[in-house]
Amino acid sequence: MADPKGFLNHGREVAKSRPVEERVKDWNEVYVPGSLLPIISKQASRCMDCGIPFCHNGCPLGNLIPEWNDYAYREDWQAASERLHATNNFPEFTGRLCPAPCESACVLGINQPPVTIKNVEVSIIDKAWESGNVAPQIPERLSGKTVAVVGSGPAGLAAAQQLTRAGHTVAVYERADRIGGLLRYGIPEFKMEKRHINRRIEQMRAEGTKFRTGIEIGRDMPATALRKRYDAVVLAVGATTPRDLPVPGRELKGIYQAMEYLPLANKVQEGDYVTSPVSAEGKHVVVIGGGDTGADCVGTAHRQGAASVTQLEIMPRPNDERDPVTQPWPTFPMLYKVTSAHEEGGERVYSVSTTHFEGDEDGNVQWLHMTEVEFVDGKLRQKPGTERKIPAQLVTLAMGFTGTDRENGLVEQFGLELDERGNIARDADFQTNVPGVFVAGDAGRGQSLIVWAIAEGRSAARACDRYLTGASDLPAPIRPTDRALAV
């Protein structure tokens, strides 16, 4: 184990962020480069090597956290990288983007701040890339079987990499112009610079994975043609149907879904535009939705020079600390979270609901009308006399997603069955009602975390491998029915 007294001798210390006034002027990651390595060995030493490491329960990938904490403490970076990659294809993604349910389940967190597992993880993988310890894993022989993976988000990429390493010939189809799915166009550059995706793609190319961009299955290529061309198909198309806000004035110009707004800012960073076609510059911006996507909209608006930014949430403000009765350890608690975007300014308003939008004579949104809401007998109702309006010249809707895309024809052309929540139904082996067609990630699970997406991709890859060959040595960290630890 690491230092037996580490958690007694050292307090929790996290990555340092660049000053707000500096970072809002660019799109680089918010953290000070290289600030973690000088402190990470001490932070890793706080790991207690518990008899029962509950951090494993918090992480669906089954990450070997105490093991790579020990190696990081001893600064054996190569061994740490090997243990990290044993369960996670893309730790540089999760180390930057995951909300770290492993830390919520950390045993030390019962009465102290938990181990900085996420920071240790990203330090290990960044050091591994820097040291040349991340090499392509080329299969020794090919199986002669072909697999199409539809969608290049974390679930699709994980499935593709696992199946390629098992010896199958894998092609990844992505409807966007670049590989990465929501990692590419849903996550702002200041949260994860896209060079991290590009580096992994090159590793996967070297391993043998093929990539086909700008092809939407169902529109550009019939699903039936794809099924005939490949021995198996893995659908990792996400849950991309956005939840809308059907209130008067929704048709006004200047109101966008978050995933209409965010990708344009990323395309500026890719060099596709000089400035975003939908910019917050000089505008009063309102973000509806209090989750991570909403925070991404907030940070993007700050960098575009918004006059003001207001984020609205229909639910009450979460608690600052875990409630031991309603959210006991080691469950993942819903707490008040201040992201890097919130540190940069703006107002957050809770327990409010939008009633309608008001525009000018040219049809541009100018005002958002809202009212306070409260729960009465378990139901949400408006509070009379609390109506008010705020300026809103750009509105983004970040209220989550309701299921997989039905408009492109993929579901109907394959003849797929859906569950009651609009997700693609699958059996215990991640297989749909169509033999040889598997589903992984949000398309089957519904909107979830990046660690669940990667775990799904790895598990679906094992099921697909077994379908093709009759057996599989690939790991399967979760079952389709597994869910996060909850009360």
Please characterize this protein's 3D structure.
It is a single chain. The chain has helices at residues 6-9, 20-23, 37-44, 55-58, 65-73, 77-85, 91-97, 101-104, 117-131, 154-165, 182-185, 195-207, 223-229, 258-270, 292-303, 340-343, 410-414, 442-445, 450-469, and strands at 146-150, 169-174, 210-213, 232-235, 255-257, 284-288, 308-313, 347-350, 352-359, 365-376, 379-382, 388-391, 394-397, 437-439. It has 487 residues and is α/β, with parallel strands linked by helices. The strands form three sheets. Strands 3-2-1-4-14 form a five-stranded parallel β-sheet, sandwiched between helices. Strands 5-13-6-7-8 form a five-stranded parallel β-sheet. Strand 1, helix 10 (154-165) and strand 2 form a beta-alpha-beta unit. Helix 3 (37-44) packs across helix 9. The radius of gyration is 23 Å and the shape is globular. The two termini are 31 Å apart. The mean pLDDT is 96.
Which descriptors would you attach to this protein?
487 residues, alpha/beta, five-stranded parallel β-sheet, 19 helices, 14 strands, 32% helix, 15% strand, DPD_II, amino-acid biosynthesis, oxidoreductase, Glutamate_Synthase
Quickly give the structural class: alpha/beta
How would you write the strand order of the largest sheet?
A: 3-2-1-4-14
Radius of gyration: 23 Å
Total number of strands: 14
Strand content: 5-15%
Terminus-to-terminus distance: 31 Å
Mean pLDDT: 96
Oligomer: single chain
Quickly count the helices.
Answer: 19
Pfam family, one: Pyr_redox_2
Organism: Streptomyces thermocarboxydovorans
Protein name: Glutamate synthase subunit beta
Keywords: Amino-acid biosynthesis, Glutamate biosynthesis, Oxidoreductase
